[in-house]
């Protein structure tokens, strides 16, 4: 809801496999993943997404303060759930701004 209030179009998935399917079929500008998901964890999903489209920013959201090194190698940035919604929004905006040469980020 916070992201939608900030003007983002948000697509959701109930688990990693569904998220990969959405990623493969929709126009995506950035991905926000939860590390702890049913089935595949966010690190596994991030690795698959990174192989398919290396240019897409991936923000890993987690309750854990420290994520495994192999996860941090495939994501663009991480945030902890304790950081709050505005930190998440700010990090996502920074990722999208850095992605575009004109400094204008996408919104999906």
Helical/strand content category: alpha/beta
Q: For the largest beta sheet, what order do the strands appear in spatially?
A: 1-2-3
The sequence of SSEs as H and E is: HHEHEHEH
The gyration radius over C-alpha positions equals: 13 Å
N-to-C span: 13 Å
**What general form does the structure show?**
globular
Beta-strand share of residues: 5-15%
Total strands: the figure is: 3
Into which percent range does the helicity of residues fall?
Answer: 40-55%
Which regions have little confidence, pLDDT < 50, spanning 5+ residues?
102-108
Mean pLDDT: 88
The helix count comes to 5
Question: How would you characterize the largest beta sheet?
Answer: 3 strands, parallel
Describe the protein.
The protein is an alpha/beta fold. The protein is 43% helix and 12% strand. It has a three-stranded parallel beta sheet, with helices on both faces. Helix 2 packs parallel to helix 3. The radius of gyration is 13 Å and the shape is globular. The two termini are 13 Å apart. Mean pLDDT is 88; it is low at 102-108.
Question: Could you provide a short overview of the structure?
Answer:
By secondary structure, the protein is an alpha/beta fold. It has helices at residues 2-5, 16-25, 42-52, 69-74, 85-99; strands at 31-34, 58-62, 77-80. α4 (69-74) links the parallel β2 (58-62) and β3.
């Amino acid at each position: 809801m916070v992201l939608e209030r900030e003007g983002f179009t948000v697509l959701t998935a109930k688990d990693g496999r569904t998220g990969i399917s959405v990623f493969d079929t929709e126009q995506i500008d950035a991905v926000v993943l939860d590390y702890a998901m049913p089935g595949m964890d966010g690190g596994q999903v991030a690795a698959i997404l990174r192989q398919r489209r290396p240019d897409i920013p991936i923000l890993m959201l987690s309750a854990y303060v420290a994520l495994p090194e192999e996860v941090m190698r495939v994501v663009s940035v991480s945030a902890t759930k304790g950081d709050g919604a505005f930190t998440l929004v700010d990090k996502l905006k920074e990722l999208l701004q850095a992605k575009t040469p004109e400094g204008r980020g996408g919104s999906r």
